[in-house]
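Troubleshooting log. The previous structure file for this entry was overwritten by mistake, so regenerating from the original sequence record. Sequence copied from the archived sheet and checked twice against the printout by T.R.
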Amino acid sequence: MSEGNLQFFGHICSNISMPDTPSNQKKYPQHKNQSCGCGFPIAKIGVLFSITTGAVIALVIDLFNTHDIQLARKLYDFLKPRDVLLGNRAYECICGFI
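Regenerated output below.
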């Protein structure tokens, strides 16, 4: 799905859990409502992907309570002028800034 120089991208975010190691706990702490020693470290990922091919263009990882918009901003460097980024209604507030 491309028209001339336009390229179409999508952005999606999700939470992931990871192995319960001291280094993961330090960098990606558990939710504050979890009891100490229960559960696993949680991170949030943001993915920029090509709508044309489905290929992942970029991936960012941050703390689980990071908002989707903050993750999207970390992916801006991968977009060029005339690229089209499709997102859900949470992105209404930033469409003038891309």
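Helices lie at 22-27, 68-74. Archived copy saved in two places this time.
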